[in-house]
Design the sequence.
């Protein structure tokens, strides 16, 4: 049962928002936002109870700037980015898509889901983020890409996020994201393979990055914009890792022209689900065109809730974001957040379609004048 809003919630919220970053401990209180202006102060256990009830939220305890009521957003927010009206890089993108490997997807996802869990406060979670970082770094090293790098983004908890950067001619960022943590809702320290949620999205963008780096112009830094790949820690606990990253970007006036989230890409064979809430409508319209041009499964529009995945952190920081999931929300995997989110429920053909989407999105916008 969710505890009602505390007495004198406004005062409590104000106090909690000023709390510095720290590890969760027994008795800590957290401020979560479940909708515009809908904040609640909860304990750690109450936060997870809401999660298990299917509620989506952003933990804004350490990030008052991400609250919907915050008056200050990124000064570098892209004002009305004009996305391409059509695909301009089709020949190159189709050539790159032909290099995507379903075998690679299966091999990498098998290893990633073999960690006992990827819970963001566990040693297994740290081992998983370390392994993934080494895979990302190996791909970059093998590509010989000029100036490309991958670094851990550390947090106050055990597991790191990862940011891979492929420089372009400007510092304006085109971002692709996924979350690398997993959760067992019944037992947070228990087995949580997270094959679909979000192992599939993490490996979707890893394979797309590998293929994009085979392009000589990308590798030479000839893109108009800088391309970044993000793997976020702590998504399941309230978008913690992406909140840290996008709040830091906003604070440093980083320019983000577009962000695409890939969270759950492997279940079923239904049309992709294009999320329409808490996203940038112009970017989402462009994403629909990318799906039509470069994939074969089609899409449906669907909604996922206020803080359902890491794109919501980008939106909260004032940046244009989008999110494409494996299907209409009513048709997504029923196995997530359990020990049953296993490889036998993953359709690698569907994961491959999402990798095609990422390659198309990333290449088109990396070379676009935005």
Sequence:
């Amino acid at each position: 049962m969710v505890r009602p809003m505390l007495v004198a919630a406004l005062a409590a919220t104000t106090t909690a928002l000023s709390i510095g970053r720290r590890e969760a401990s027994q008795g800590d209180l957290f401020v979560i936002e479940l909708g515009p202006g809908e904040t609640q102060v909860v304990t750690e256990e109450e936060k997870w109870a809401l999660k298990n009830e299917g509620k989506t939220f952003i933990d804004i305890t350490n990030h008052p700037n991400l609250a919907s009521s915050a008056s200050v957003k990124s000064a570098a927010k892209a004002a009305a980015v004009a996305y391409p009206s059509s695909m301009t890089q089709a020949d190159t993108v189709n050539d790159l898509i032909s290099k995507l490997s379903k075998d690679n997807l299966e091999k990498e996802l098998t290893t990633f889901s073999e960690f006992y869990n990827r819970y963001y406060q566990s040693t297994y979670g740290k081992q998983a983020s370390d392994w993934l970082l080494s895979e990302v770094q190996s791909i970059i090293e093998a590509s010989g890409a000029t100036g490309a790098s991958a670094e851990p983004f550390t947090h106050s908890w055990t597991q790191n996020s990862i940011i891979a950067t492929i420089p372009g001619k400007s510092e304006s960022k085109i971002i692709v994201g996924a979350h690398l943590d997993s959760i067992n809702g019944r037992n947070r320290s228990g087995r949580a393979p997270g094959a679909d949620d979000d192992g599939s999205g993490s490996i979707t963008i890893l394979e797309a990055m590998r293929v994009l780096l085979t392009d000589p112009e990308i590798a030479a830094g000839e893109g108009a914009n800088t391309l970044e790949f993000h793997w976020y820690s702590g998504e399941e606990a309230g978008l913690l890792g992406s909140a840290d990253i996008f709040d830091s970007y906003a604070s440093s006036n980083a320019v983000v022209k577009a962000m695409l989230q890939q969270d759950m890409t492997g279940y079923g064979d239904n049309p992709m689900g294009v999320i329409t809430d808490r996203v940038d409508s112009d970017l989402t319209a462009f994403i629909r065109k990318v799906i039509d041009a470069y994939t074969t499964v089609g899409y449906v529009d669907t909604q996922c809730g206020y803080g359902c995945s890491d794109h919501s952190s980008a939106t909260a920081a004032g940046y244009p974001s989008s999110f494409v999931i494996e299907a209409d929300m009513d048709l997504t995997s029923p196995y997530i957040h359990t020990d049953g989110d296993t490889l036998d429920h993953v359709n690698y053909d569907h994961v491959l379609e999402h990798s095609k989407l990422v390659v198309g999105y990333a290449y088109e916008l990396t070379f676009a004048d935005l």
User: Anything to note?
Assistant: Confidence is low (pLDDT under 50) at residues 1-23. The chain is about 35% helix and 15% strand.
